[in-house]
Amino acid sequence: MYKGTTPRIRKVLHALIIAFALLGIRLVFVQLGAAKPLSDIASNQYKMAISLLPKRGVIYDRNLKELAVSINLNSVFAEPFRVKDKASASQKLANVLGISREEIYKKLSQERGFVWLSRKVSQDKAIKVRALNIKGIDFIKEPQRVYPNAMTASHVVGFTDMDNNGLEGLELRFNKHLKGVMGYRYAVRDAKQREVPGYEYKELQPVDGDSMVLTIDGMIQSIAERELEKGYEKYNAKGACIIVMDPFTGDILALANRPGYDPNNVKAFPVDYRRNRAICDFFEPGSSFKIVAASGALEEKAVRPADKFFCENGEYRWAGHTYHDHTPHGWLQFREVIKYSSNIGTMKAAQKLGKDKLYKYVKKFGFGEKTGIELPGEVCGITTHPVTWSKLSLCSISMGQEVTVTALQLACAISAIANGGSLVKPRIVERIQAPSGHIIRRFESKKPQRVISEQTAKEMRNILRGVVDDGTAKLAEVDGYVPAGKTGTAQKVESNGTYSHRKFTASFIGFAPYDKPKFVIAVIMDEPRPFYYGGVVCAPVFKNVTKELMSYYKIWPKEQVKGEAKKARR
Amino acid sequence: MEKNQNLHCSRILGIIISLTFIAVMYVNQQALIYQMGLKVKQNNDVYAKLIDHNKIMVYNVLNLRSPASLERKLLAKKVELSMPSKWQVVKLAKKGPSVKLFASGR
Predict the structure, then answer these.
(1) Alpha carbon of A405 to those of A212, A246, A249, A266, A419: distances in Å?
(2) Which of B41, B59, B68 sits opposite A69 (nearest CB)?
(3) Which is the catalytic residue, given A118, A211, A287, A288?
């Protein structure tokens, strides 16, 4: 074999044979022994997974007007190792992004491959940053939740965080539906970490979030917010809320709170402003709760509207405690007891009803239980069982003390009187639908529970009409329409457990027109100043909203209604 | 013998040329795929950008026509709107047969 070859060539040949043998052994080792880990390392080097973000579902009002939508904005990031002149880049970026130069420099000096500089910047800023043409600075598109109506319905809709997770309101409660499912594209990347187009080897499409249609009417919401704001500012209240509701279906047409916040710029407002007072705050309702004792007493036939009660000229001693009326009265018919909001008259009616029956009606009207509305954070208020009641409790509860309620519970209770005696379950979400329009879930109105008979409800509507016509809520009267309702002014409890003489909760719950109610409205103000009566601070808000809603519903004012209504009540 | 060797050499040369041609074609095909992918990506980017722009414009329109925004503008211009009184409204009769006839041009 080696014939005719020189020893040197032979040596080279031997060396080559040994080298190839070693390579062969290595090949066998690589192919059989270390194939898996090595192929994993290789695939990690050239394969990449790109997240495909789903579109968050849209939130619509009942007329399909958008309350919350998503748009894509640019987020600015840096690859610090690629930025050459960090000091100069920091200065330029600081001028455009509105962040301090030091902060940007600190980020660019980090020994990391990727660092966010500013997320979800406006279009103008993105254009300016792009124009700087700094190597190592790039953009990623990210969806941003935006709310075209700004503060309007902010407590209902809520808001999301930077990563599009719901943090408040319906955005939080239905986050799972709205968010959608993230998709991925597995692709090949080049040496500069860029995706090589046309070499995707697997793609999982993202599933867009479902959309929601609410029962809220954007126009009614806007009217309610505007009028509430006026009242809240005029009376320097600590807080306020308003609910407009369809008494027959339980649909919430508007729900607003003050102070409010703009979900487009949440950080600019204190955390406390985000609280949905209409469902999260409970308070002693005061006289507006008299509708419960009055309805119960009429339903159980313990009293009749024309029965007379002696109101002790404004001072009544019961079980060692002296009760007062804000205006002294002598003999009053039961309908006048409610009309003039006499505490003493109501207590005497409640005594005729008895504590077990009063408690029965408190529960029947839905107090002490959550209404089940599809909003997060609802509280149930406090109602105690008669076995724990003191001698004073019957009287106190009948006039709205020793119980705590939410504004929504009050709205539901007055709805029962407005709709003929049935307690409706409120709802704020009408349906959830897929991006294709296919309805995934419909939130049907739940079957109302009968609380009082139609006759009692009618008698109560007439009595409550008297409250507006000639009682404590004259400021709620709307010319040409015939609203009805009940005022409430409750002393708040001080930290030492006594009733305050400076802090009050004012309320007005009502509906219009009184004979064929189209909507109910509950207005609550927390610590209004200097005036604090429900009939003074809340009734005008009710009046203004009612007036505009009647126009919105194209209901023309009746002429001579005042006289007609009086005749009807006689 | 020499003739056979020449035939053998030209066959090997033919195979090498064919293989080279196939390899070049393959590389060319890959380059075309890459170029097409790049074009598709560029078009997709333009499309996505237009969609995003459209969404932002739609959002701006929604923002401008929101009741709160309109109200603010009307107040700034001191324009006060109110519902007309009953006497200011003329109710038109519902479309009856005569109206239909008129509408159809007879």
Answers:
(1) 29, 20, 21, 29, 21
(2) B59
(3) A287
